[in-house]
Amino acid sequence: MAVEYIYPDYEIVRDYDRCIVCRVCERQCANEAHEYLSDKNKMVADNAKCVNCHRCVSLCPTRALKIVKSDHTFKENANWTGKSIKEIYKQAGSGGVLLSSMGNPENYPVYFDKILLNASQVTNPSIDPLREPMETRVYLGAKPERIERDEKGRLINNLKPQLKLSMPVMFSAMSYGSISYNAHESLARAATELGILYNTGEGGLHEDFYKYGKNTIVQVASGRFGVHKKYLESSAAIEIKMGQGAKPGIGGHLPGTKVGEDISKTRMIPVGTDAISPAPHHDIYSIEDLRQLVYSLKEATGYTKPVIVKIAAVHNVALIASGIARSGADIIAIDGFRGGTGAAPTRIRDHVGIPIELALASVDQRLRDEGIRNNVSIVVAGSIRSSADVVKAVALGADAVYIGTAALIALGCHLCRSCHTGKCNWGIATQREDLVKRLNPNLGYKRLVNLMNAWKHEIKEMMGGMGINSIESLKGNRLMLRGVGLNEKELQILGIKHAGE
Amino acid sequence: MDLRACELGYQALNEKIRNTDEDVVIYDCYGERFIGSGASNKTITINGTPGNALGAYLDGATIVVNGNAQDATGDTMNDGKIIINGNAGDALGYAMRGGKIFVKGYAGYRTGIHMKEYKDKKPVIVVGGSTGSFLGEYLAGGLIIVLGLDTDSFPTGYFTGVGMHGGEIFIRSSKAPKNLPKQVSASVANKDDIKGIEDILAEFSDLFGVSMEEILGKTFYLLTPNARNPYKQLYTEN
Predict the structure, then answer these.
(1) Is B169 within the bounds of a domain?
(2) B1 lies in a domain?
(3) Could you say which of A177, A345, A430, B86 would form a disulfide bridge with B68 (CB–CB 3.0 to 4.6 Å)?
């Protein structure tokens, strides 16, 4: 037998005084970390199988379990960390490309945490949202350049199709395949109740969910899975996915093992085949080509829906966004390098792309400088963790944000970052029927509604504090922001002053 | 309904096509784009040269082009038929899922990329002449036939079927394919294989007046994927 080089990251600690040998942990763990020894009437655990998802901890009726980070260590080395060493062991053992899930976990700056909000004092009094009306509604889409009137002086409605959101937050693209049926149902129902939108991702739309069409963004990506006339027509908007923050420059790959009967039907491919989304759209090599896809979708849907173009935040993002704003797209979605994913090569996820805060600030500024900011709305993602991040993003120039990871956490995700195994114990990133059942969409959707309502109230509180009663007055209002601990260049790109200035 | 494309421009032209249930005949077509986007239940005859993205998302309509077609014809086509009495540009039938495309002449680069099939939906592309490189790249399903009636050389370019993981490509040629990517295996099509595509070949023969004797006068090579899950061994969980 080969020597096992890797010691488990986590240890399952069981308090045997509390354990009643009910075997719930054993039944709940899809990774099979827990085992019952019948001869000793005792539960034991295999730490190597634990992904630290807390399913057993949460369901243990006597709170006999906890998971701790192992204090086992390599000889300390600031350059060769334990993580680096383990990754080499894994690759030397398998010859494989390292595959990870969820957003970039590395220690890069989080600019949202280095930006502070303003509040009114003495002059321009603050507003109490419990007492006074506060507007969080936003409309996404291209805005007309000028008011047009007919020969009798009456207004001509030259407004292109708009998306109406009750608050500037939407659920970002997560395909049926990467997440479960019940997760999708929760998102769709929550979006409908909240008056916002969710996004199908590139996995087609399950026929059960066509009824939520008014609150659905359908995605068209390089593999065109599940894309057909009815799919396009059922939606509120169509998103062309050019890139994703977690894996800029590479495509998607749903392994054949995850393509069961239902997924096969929705993606419209045979059971068991790999669903490969190539890295580029092979018919798009320029802004002109992109324009062609934008307009072919508009033609196919009679110019009734906004078209969104989603890109990853990369080095030349402002220039690319400027091209997109001239392509006929109504909305640009920009996904930062911390955006989540169901599976991405570790090296891509951790080393490619740029922070969304910098990308947003430079895109907004560039579009203003070029006088085309009103051609498009800007939606940002990756990663928005709280209502404060939403407010900061809007003040930096976003019209709205997408949340993915935050929505999944609301559904019970514990961020164990093992989505790619397909064995999600919380019934979110899995297609295994017994696991999917664990997520009750009746409760799941309610948790999403709760989260969004709480954020909406917090957004109003923060706006009120600044003396602003409408989200539109906050948009691009960078005077409401100050940086802390940022250098001149960072402040310049963000277009904000340092705290104290 | 008769329409003069050059007088209308593409938006007005396509609006008229969208809003009628009648068959449409288009004259003086000089590169108007997006004709027949998502169309169903009608026949659109185009006299001239339609622009890019002809018949994108086509959903059951028949489009007949008396002339050449440009790039991205039949993008994500779901059902219906596109008949081109001339040549086709690049990216013909991109991600097509159903229906048939017949091209009398040659087709450009990236023909039939990422076509896929599902149950009764099986897309078909028949090219009478030769094609450019990257024919059937990422092919996940469906049928591509290249007849090479215009050449004695092998009628496709480089990287034929690269990344292919489903579907079939038939290539008619007196010369055997060379330098195929490792995901593709090639064999001489046997009688049963030919029988399977005979109806399609007969349809091509009828449409463009090429005799079956001529079509069947050369060897057909059948290209299929080596594996359905070509990337299975690539990854290590981290």
Answers:
(1) yes
(2) no
(3) B86
**Residue reference for tokens 């009910």:** A22
Mutate: best of A227, A282, A284, partner B, most B CBs <10 A: A282
**Domain co-membership, A210 together with A290:** yes
The answer to whether residue A496 is domain-embedded is no
Q: CA dihedral in degrees (A462, A466, A471, A474; nearest 10)?
A: -120
Which residues span the domain enclosing B150?
87-230
Phi–psi pair at A109, nearest 5 degrees? -60, 140
* Domain membership flag for residue B76: no
Tokens 């080596």 map to which residue? B226
3-state secondary structure A145-203: CCCEECCCCCEECCCCCCEEECCCEEECCCCECCECHHHHHHHHHHHHHHCCCEECCCC
Query: How many C-beta atoms surround the C-beta of residue A180 within 10 A?
Result: 26
> What is the per-residue pLDDT for A378?
98
Residue A467 contacts B where some CB pair is shorter than 8 Å: no
Q: Is A288 helix (H, G, I), strand (E, B) or coil?
A: helix
Same domain, A382 and A265: yes
Kindly state the tokens that stand for A281.
Answer: 């759209």
Cα Rg of chain A, angstroms: 24
Q: Residue B231's pLDDT is what?
A: 66
Residue B27 has pLDDT above 70, yes or no: yes
A475 belongs to a structural domain: no
pLDDT above 80 (res B233) = no
Stretch A125-148: mean pLDDT:
93
pLDDT band at B129 (very low <50, low <70, confident <90, very high): very high
pLDDT at A248 over 80: yes
Distance CA A472, CA A50 (A): 47
Tell me the β-bridge partners of B168.
Answer: B143
The answer to whether A490 and A477 are in contact (CB under 8 A) is: no
Tokens of A69: 């980070």
Specify the amino acid at residue A346: T
Q: Which B residues in the span 50-89 are in contact with A, Cβ-Cβ below 8 Å?
A: 52-53, 56-57, 59, 71-72, 75-76, 78
Number of domains in chain B: 1
CA closest to A93 among chain B residues: B236
Beta-carbon pairs below 8 A across chains A and B: 142
pLDDT digits (tens, 9 = 90+) for A375-416: 999 999 999 999 999 999 999 999 999 999 999 999 999 999
Looking at residue A24, which CATH number applies to its domain?
A: 3.30.70.20
Q: How many CB atoms lie within 10 A of CB A155?
A: 9
Q: Which two tokens stand for residue A333?
A: 């979605």
Coil, strand or helix at A86 = helix
Rounded CA-CA distance A372/A383 in Å is: 26
Answer yes or no: is A413 within a domain.
yes
**CATH number of the domain where residue B128 is located:** 2.160.20.60
The CATH number of residue A406's host domain is: 3.20.20.70
Residue A489, domain member (yes or no):
no
3-state secondary structure of B145: strand
Whether B187 is in a domain gets the answer: yes
Contacts of A296 in chain B (CB under 8 A): 33-34, 37, 53, 56-57, 72, 75
Mean pLDDT over residues A423-432, rounded? 95
What is the domain range of residue A24? 10-96
